[in-house]
Amino acid sequence: MHTSLVDCLLEYEVSSPAHFLLNIGAAFHPGHEVVEERLTITPSMKVRHFSDERSGNRFIRLDAPKGVLTVNYHARVHLHPALQPLPMDETPVSALPDDVLHYLMPSRYCESDSLRRVAQQLFGHLPPGMGRVRAVESWIHESVDYQPGTTPPHSTQPTTTAQDVFVERVGVCRDFAHLAITLCRALNIPARLVVGYVRFAEPPQDFHAVFEAWLDGRWVLFDATRRAPIDRLVRIGSGRDAKDVAFATIFGNVTMRCMAITVDEGDVPADSTATDAAPATPVSAA
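and the corresponding structure tokens:
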């Protein structure tokens, strides 16, 4: 077992009253256990918490007054990465569960219909299964340049799609993941975006986006950037693409002043228990 200490600080300048939808809390997921967490909002205000039962994504809603808004989320999470059997096969479309089928469809940032021919040319000749998904992952890692600051939240171009990334061959983690998802879907492999916290080998720390493919009746994680150990990702949310798992959706005139994320790690003995941990839910707002 492994443990991660996560701290996320967000600061905004609110020009006029605005509504916030935040997705920054560790998700309800069998791969990890939230043993302690704390949410501090300044100035103090009423917040609403809710979660998506199917995905495990957790959300915070609040109405912020004019002025400076500070949101600080802190959590201690035990990680229990699942061992994946090898080899793993693709599932025929006719046998996909109903709630997985829509992860084959094109979405806002993943135009799998437009890149279907490309996907078939590059990977259609490969044997179906995990090896083909690994080939997609490796091709993106080798073909696309990772350049921080080329896409949101660091730039002013929130419309970057997988097709844009395929043409420009440059991007950040979410772009790598979007392109992988798109190519997998174009090969009839369900795929989705996963966002979370993980400790990078080199600063600065940030939210990290990877992708999951549906193989042998389960979701399997992949990371085309290869910037961090994927088995140590503290999942925040999963969805069709970045539209479903944005860490902040804001309705109003707001400017981000600061975003600071830190992730500390430490191994925990497998037989240890967190008897002194605070309950994982509900988080407290101060």
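(Above: one complete record from the training split.) The two ends are 31 Å apart (CA to CA).
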